[in-house]
Design brief:
11 helices; alpha/beta; single chain
Length: 371
């Protein structure tokens, strides 16, 4: 392996070995605590523009399984692991992690102290970084010349950037699945994980995926039984026009709505609430949340850097779940329209599946709305 280094915006340098594509990349340096599910992490569009650090020390041990992809490609800006397994062992394995990273053009680094990196991000907060891969000794001694470029980096147009090419610019949308006498669901693609659609189709729904910029009028004219607002990357408040269309759908008030992650945040913004950036975000598969109605605790999968401010919610909104680590809002339901949303991922393919029942709750809401 050739040498590589990770340079943080504060000047900290971690030296290690190259993995994946060689070159250089800039992104927001974040960490995820998932012990499994690195394939889902790498293909989750919500990681767009970010250099992802895995806190679990050994990554790549079961290789790459394309059936587990959450999207067609990887959107991460870079990838950081402590130990890369170059000899995966799994009956479903279709290739090794290093080859996948090269195929996707993702610059990575391994062999660094990911515990020290994670501790720095927890204490200082998410910060920009650059991975230099395949570098020479001169680059290692002169990393300061990159700090201005690193500091200037900013994620923008994130939702637009992860949009699927095959649905952009279409005026008429075809149902991917068709069951007579089944519920018709519109899925807004803000960077949707594939398992959201799979969970709905598993329950017999007809799912129609529409682009992020689809108008409320268009959606209403399609007469769906329900609307799903998907996850996605970036700052929710950046999507001003999308939020305006969601507000129109809420004002119409006749079609049940379920929002997940970014969809949860933008639904809250459309209803008059505020969002704010978290110090280091929630990313991983072991985040505890509490159902405020019955006190039950669920372990959830999460991937977000922003949160809804509970105190900013309107009178017709009620917090349904709270994060047990920091008390942030993890779910909202509305009393004036058939709509609810959650910050975590009930569709988590890599697990846990504790909150999978929320899809059934959504379908039950749809059936009650049509009575």
């Amino acid at each position: 392996m050739s040498k590589a280094c990770l340079i943080l915006a504060d000047g900290t340098v971690f030296e290690g070995n190259s993995m994946g594509a060689e070159g250089r990349t800039i992104g927001e340096t974040v960490f995820t605590t998932g012990m499994t599910g690195y394939v889902e992490t790498l293909t989750d569009p919500s990681y767009y523009g970010q250099i992802v650090t895995q806190t679990f020390p050994l990554i790549g041990n079961y290789g790459i399984e394309r059936e587990d992809f959450e999207s067609r490609k990887s959107y991460v800006s870079g990838y950081v692991v402590h130990e890369l397994c170059d000899g995966p062992s799994n009956f479903r394995c279709q290739g090794d992690l290093d080859s996948f990273l090269k195929e996707q053009g993702i610059v990575g680094i391994c062999g660094i102290d990911t515990r020290a990196l994670t501790k720095k991000l927890r204490e200082s907060g998410v910060m920009n970084g650059m991975i230099l891969s395949g570098i020479n000794e001169i680059d290692l001694k002169d990393t300061g010349k990159y700090l201005k470029e690193i500091g200037a980096y900013k994620i923008s147009d994130a939702v637009k950037s992860v949009q699927k090419d095959d649905i952009l610019g279409k005026d008429v949308f075809e149902k991917k699945n068709s069951h007579s006498n089944s519920l018709d669901i519109i899925l807004f693609d803000f960077g949707a994980k594939g398992n959201i659609q799979r969970e709905l189709e598993k329950r017999g729904c007809n799912v129609t995926v529409v682009p992020y910029n689809t108008s409320a009028e268009k959606v209403i004219s399609m007469q769906p039984d329900g609307i799903m607002l998907s996850n996605g990357p970036g700052d929710p408040a950046e999507n001003v026009k999308v939020i305006e269309e969601i507000k129109k759908l809420c004002d119409y008030g006749k079609i049940p709505v379920f929002g997940i992650c970014l969809g949860h945040q933008m639904l809250s913004l459309a209803r008059g609430a505020k969002t704010s950036r978290l110090k280091y975000g929630h990313r991983g598969g072991n985040h505890p949340v509490k159902d405020v109605k019955n006190g039950r605790i669920y372990i959830t999968s999460q991937n977000h850097g922003y949160a809804v401010e509970s105190e900013s919610l309107p009178d017709f909104a009620r917090v349904t779940f709270v994060n047990l680590n920091d008390g942030t809002c993890e779910g909202v339901e509305y009393t004036d329209i058939p709509a609810f949303s959650v910050q975590f991922h009930p569709e988590a393919c890599g697990g846990p599946h504790d909150t999978n029942f929320l899809f059934d709750r959504f379908l039950e809401m749809i059936k009650n709305a049509t009575k």
